[in-house]
Amino acid sequence: MLVIENLNYTSRATIFFQRFSVIFTDILFIYAVRECCRCVNGKRAAKDILEKPTFILAVLLLWNFGLLIVDHIHFQYNGFLFGLMLLSVARLCQVNSSGSFPLLPCLKVSTKGEQVEEAWVLLFLFLQKRYLEGALLFAVLLHFKHIYVYVAPAYGIYLLRSYCFTANNADGSLKWRSFSLLHVTLLGLIVCLVSALSLGPFIVLGQLPQVISQLFPFKRGLCHAYWAPNFWALYNAMDKALTIFGLKCNFLDPTKIPKASMTGGLVQEFQHTVLPSVTPLATLICTFISILPSVFCLWFKPQGPRGFLQCLVLCALSSFMFGWHVHEKAILLAILPLSLLSVQRAKDAGIYLILTTTGHFSLFPLLFTPPELPIKILLMLLFTVYSFSSLKSLFRRERPLLNWLETIYLVQLVPLEIFSEIIFPLTPWKQHFPFVPLLLTSVYCALGVTYAWLKLYISVLTERIPVRQKAE
Fold it and tell me: Domain boundaries in the chain?
């Protein structure tokens, strides 16, 4: 398996190794889901276990359609990595941080004097341990796969705001004198230790430049061979449309337009025909600008774990929207943590349904063989029907989760799939334009992902902090 020149190698032992290793590493993901369920607010407790937020969250995470097909059919180890991320999130969310160290709901002290003081000391140490555990887990995760650097700003700002500064003023603003040099040092030691263990051997052998070149392959082009449903998919589609319009109106010279261009299915750099070509620096700037508002909200409008989760999802979505050579499966980086928010508020549940439906549908082209068609459709239907029905039942007393326009948009995914999988292969277009279904899927799903990103951002930016929370 490890011989690079041994292409198309397969054996029964290889298959068993791949399948059982994925299943075994999913144990960490299962444990992380359990810990995340313990962080869910129990105000919506129901008599029927099937309607409890914790049960719904467990199903949304454990039976996530995208994670299932990417790991257990497409074969990757994303479950293990997301397990580390969710576990770090759980550790940080178990600290109800508003700049101080409040009492946990499970801690009840009825006596006074030394016992109360001792309880506060134990609580202080417990919360410190949770912060450090979360930071350690994320540092390890980051060295397992560098794509998680997308959500690093959320971790960095949250830890700085809630752990390095240990107190707030009465109005909720930061008390600058509460800055703890010890806490910063502890976080720095964790990062340095993990980095030394991970990158130390490569530095000693002089191979660090080679590692960095493999981690950031800028020569692969703006988009993957199959476009991820993000802003650049819309940008490429617009360039295509303007090119066709220019050729019809004789504004462009046909001899100067490449035949393959962006839809050739090749992983390499391409130039846009009409619109300005995009460079890696441009995508970096766009990503940085799109992340800034969420980071500012996390700093200036701290709302504890929920604010941290909102910032984490927005960082993941912003990087997915504007990143360089983004893979379609990177949408899971936003869908999974958004699951934790979806069982808390109806507004977040509606955004989750839009993002998860379009994001999961955009993964369909990963499974392209005829035997996989009924499998992916059935699994997608099962997960989608459960997501809608369970969240609708959970928030039955509140406003509808989706409006009529959002519902129409999601329903149109059905004819799109019928055209892509059944009608288009029977037409002569398949021989000349084989990438049309991919283009339509990416562009249509990009509209939904962009809409969910904007809706979540507007929700976060316009949300007010309750007076009670400010006082805490």
Answer: 13-222+277-471
